[in-house]
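Example 740, ligand beta-D-glucopyranose.
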Amino acid sequence: MKLADRSLALPRARTALFTALSLLCIAPAFAAQTALSPDQRATKLEKRMSLKDMRHLLQSYNTMVAQQPPGGIGTAGYVSALPKWGIPAQQQNDAGIGVHNYPLDAGPGKQPNHVRGEAGNTTPLPSLIGIAATWNPQIAYDGGRMIGDEAFRQGINVLLAGGINLTREPRDGRTFEYLGEDPLLASRIDGAEIRGIQSQHVLSTIKHYALNDQETNRTTVSSNIDERAMRESDLLAFEMAIEDGHPGSVMCGYNKVNGIWDCSNHHLLVDILKGDWKYPGWVMTDWGADHGPLDAMAGTDQVSGIDLTTGLSIGSMSSSFGAPLTQAIAKGEVTHARVEDMVHRILRSMYAVGLFDHPPVTKPLDVEGDASVSQHAAEQAIVLLKNQSHALPLKSDIKTVAIIGGHADAGVLSGGGSAQVWPIGGPAIPAVKGPDWQWKVYDPSSPMKALQKLLPNAKVTYDDGSDPAKASALAKTSDVAIVFATQWTCEGADVPNLALPDKQDALIDAVTVANAHTVVVLESGGPVTMPWLSKVSAVVEAWYPGARGGDAIANVLTGKVNPSGRLPVTFPKDEQQLPRPQITSAQEVDYNIDGAAVGYKWYDKKNLKPLFPFGFGLSYSRFDYSDLHINTDGDHVTVSFKVSNTGDLEGMDTPQVYVGMPADSGEAPRRLAGFQKVSLQPGQSRTVSVTIDPRLLAIFDVPGHRWQIAAGSYPIKVGHSSRDFVLNGDAEVAAATLAP
Ligand code: BGC
C-alpha cells in the first residue's frame, strides 16, 4: 500500500525549473482565449486532441514514492504538461490544513530521519475542525487564500483540500481534517475555504465523496444508508459546499456506499453529482481507490497515484485507466464520447480556475503574514467550554502558574497523515513515528513561552506531567495549574475510544486535588470525554491550533483575545450515547441507525443530554437576543433579530437559528438553519438577518425524486447552541417542491 511509502516523497524541489518549463509550455494559441467560457475553451481544445493525448490527462503519477516522475513536485500526484496543446502540468499536493510537505532534506533517494531541526516549508492552519469552530466563513476564506498562495509560490497548482465528511463517528482519526457534524456549517466553511484557495489560481478538490466517515477498514468498508437519509445529511454537505466553492475536482473516496465502491458508484457520481447537481468539474480517485476501467462509465474521470515504475495504481495495484482503459475503449465498453467528456471536465476546471492563464510564479513565502493568518484563525477557533466563577481570564497580578504536560513548554500538537504540515523551523520536539507512515509532530509555538510574555510578573514553571505526584506538588504551590491534555489522531487509524490517552485523566484528577484552580487546555482531534469535568474550574478546547497555536492559547487564557469558538461537534458524555457505542470493525457500517440525524440531531431524537452540545461555547462577555421577526416569502424564510453585547468586554458571538419540522409531520429533528458571527462592543446591538436555504425546510422525497416542503408551521428557535434557545417563533410555509 502506498501509505508506507509516503515518507520518501520529494519535497518542493526543482521548483524554479518547473515554473520556467510550465511557462514555456503555454502555447500562445490556447493561452489568450479569455473571451470564451471555460467550457468553450475546453471544447475547442479537446476536439483537436488525439485519443493518446486525451488519455494522458486521465491518470496522475504518484509523487510520494522513491521513484519520482520527472518534473513532479507536489507531494501527491503529477500529470505532466502537454506542451503541444499548451496544457500545463498538474502538480497535485495534499492540503488538509495547509500545504502538506516533508522535511526539506527528504529529497529523492534520501531517507528523512525526522529528527529535531528538520524543517518543513509551509504554514499549518489550525485543524479543519477548528476552522469550523470559528463559525466564520471569512476565516475559512482567508485560510484558503493563504494556503493557495503558499502553493502558488512553490509551483503547486492543485490542492487536495476541502475535506467535508460529516462527523458520524467521532473516533474517526480524520475528524480533525473535517468540519464537524452539520451540513450547513460544514458547507459554508468548506465553500469559503475552497473559494479562498481557488482565488489564487490554485485548483481545489472537495473530498472524500462520499460517506468515508471512519478509517477502520477504510478501503473495504461499506457505508450503508438510505437514499433519503444521505441526501439530507452527508450528501447535502457536499452539495451546498460545491455550490458555494465551485471546486475544480471532487475526490471519490476509498469506501463503498451501499455495497458499491465510491469511485465505481454510478449513482453517486453520475446520477447525483453530475446529474442532479450538474457538477461540471472532474472526479479524481483517492490514491488507489480505483477499481477498473469501467469506473470511467460510473463517472470517474481521472485515476490518481499511478506508480511510475509499475504503471499500477498504488494500493489497488491495478492500472484501471492505463492499458485496461485502452482495451475497454477498443471493445466499446468505454465510449469515445465518455473519454471526451472526461477530458473536457478536466480542461474546463483548469481553465475556470486559471491554471492556463496564471501559471504559478515561484517566490518566497510571506512567512510572518501567513503565520498571522493562522494565529487569527486559531484565536477564533478556541472554544471556552467551562469557566466557573470567572476562573479565566487569568488575573494580571497572578504570581505563580504551573504549566503541566502536553509539551506546552515547547509547542502544540498537530494531526498526522496526508494533512501533516511539517513546520517552518522544524518540529518543537523530535517527531515520533505513528502506527504506520504517520508522524506525531509538535508545531514550535509554546503556550508556556507565550504566557510568560503576557504575564511578565508571574513565575511560570513547567512540569511534563509524567509523574502525577510531582505535577501535583507543583500545582499545590501555584496560584493556578494549567494542564495541557493532548489526544493525537491521524489518517489511517481511528482512536479506540474518546478517553484522553496516556493516563491523562488520572493526571488531571491528581492536579485538581492539589489545586482547586485547575484549568485544562485540550489539544484534541475532536470530542474527548472528561470524567474530571466537575473538579476543574475551566476547560478550553484548542483543537490542533497550528503555526502560532501557543500564542493563540495564551491570548485566550489571559483575555487578550475574548474566546468566540463554538462547537462544530457534540461532545458526548461517553461512548454509550453514540449511535454506535463501539466503532464498527465489520465490513459494513450501518448508518441507518442515525440516518439523517447526525450529531446533535441524534441527541435530540433520542433525548440524550450530551456533555457539551453542538454550537456551545462561552465568552468573557454576555450576549442576548431580542426582537425576532420571521418573514416568509414563497419558500424562503428570513429570520431577523437583534444581538446585544450585555457584558463588559468587546467580543464575538454566533447566534444560531434552528428550524423544526411541522408538529404533525413526525419528520426529522431540528436542523441548524442559519448563523452569523458578529463582533460587538459592550452595550452595542446589531440586527442579524439570515435566509434559510429551502432544502433545510424540506425532506428528500425519494420516489418523487425531489425535495419536498410540506405546508405548515415550522418552529424557529434562535439561541446560543443547539440546546439553549432564547427566541421562539413560527414560520408559516406553503407547500413546495424543489429540484433534486
Ligand atoms: C487520502 C487523501 C489524500 C491522498 C493523497 C489518501 O490516503 O485519503 O485525502 O489526498 O491520500 O495523498
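Summary: Residues 1-31, 104-117 have pLDDT under 50 and may be disordered.
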